[in-house]
C-alpha cells in the first residue's frame, strides 16, 4: 500500500479530487465510461466537495461516469444517514449526471426487504465489467464499506453474491447493504481515505499488517492501492 501523506482534511480532499478527475478524464479520452465506487464517511464527503470545487472539474463529462457505492445504510431515501446524500449535496448538485449510470442501493422505504435490496444491488454490481476507482473511508475499527472486523461478510469468495445485507452493524445504523471484498478488489485503483486522530489506531493496524488483518488492510487494487491520510491520522504510524 502506497501512502500519500497530506497535512489536513482539506488537502486530502484536494489531492484525492485531482487524482480522481485525472483517472476519469483519461478513461473518457480513451472512449470509456469510467466507473467510480463512492464511500460514505467524513473523508469521502471531503473528497466529493473538493471534486465539486476543483478547477479541472469540467474536464470530465460527469454524465458519462458510472457511480456505485461501496455500502449504503438501510434508512429511507433522503435520510441524513444515507451515504448517497453526500454526493447529492455536493458533486451531484453541481454537475449533470446520467441517472441510468448512478446506481444507488434501494432505500428502506422502497417496499423491498433488506435482503431483496442487497440481491438487487448484487445484480447491478455483477454486471459492471470494470471498476476504475474504489474510494473507501476507513472506520476507527478498521472497517471499510460495511465490512466490519470479525464479521462473516469478509469471508465471501469471488463466486458468491457481489453485495450482501448486513444486520447488527457495530456502528449505527444497524442495517446496511455492502459490496463484498472481492468486488471492491476488482478496482483498478483502490484508495483508502483517512482523516483525523481517531483513525490513527486503525492505520497502525493497516500499515503494520497486524493479524488478524482488519478489513481496510485487505484492500488491493489491480494497479495501485493508496492510503490517502493526513498527519493526524498517521501520527502513530510514522
Ligand atoms: O459507516 C461508515 O463509515 C465509514 C467511515 O466513516 P467516517 O465518518 O468515520 O470517516 C465509511 O467508510 C462507510 O462507507 C460508512 O458506511
TrEMBL record:
Q: Which UniProt keywords apply?
A: Hydrolase
Q: Which domain of life is it from?
A: Bacteria
Q: Where is the Glucosamine/galactosamine-6-phosphate isomerase domain?
A: 9-228
This entry's Enzyme Commission designation comes to 3.1.1.31
Q: Which SUPFAM superfamilies match?
A: NagB/RpiA/CoA transferase-like
- Gene3D superfamilies documented for this protein: 3.40.50.1360
Q: Hey, which pathway is this one from?
A: Carbohydrate degradation; pentose phosphate pathway; D-ribulose 5-phosphate from D-glucose 6-phosphate (oxidative stage): step 2/3
Task: Supply one GO molecular-function term.
Answer: 6-phosphogluconolactonase activity
Its recorded reaction(s) are: 6-phospho-D-glucono-1,5-lactone + H2O = 6-phospho-D-gluconate + H(+)
Q: What does this protein do?
A: Hydrolysis of 6-phosphogluconolactone to 6-phosphogluconate.
Record-linked NCBIfam families: pgl (TIGR01198)
Family of this protein: Belongs to the glucosamine/galactosamine-6-phosphate isomerase family. 6-phosphogluconolactonase subfamily.
From the Swiss-Prot or TrEMBL record, give the protein name: 6-phosphogluconolactonase
Q: Which organism is it from?
A: Leucobacter muris
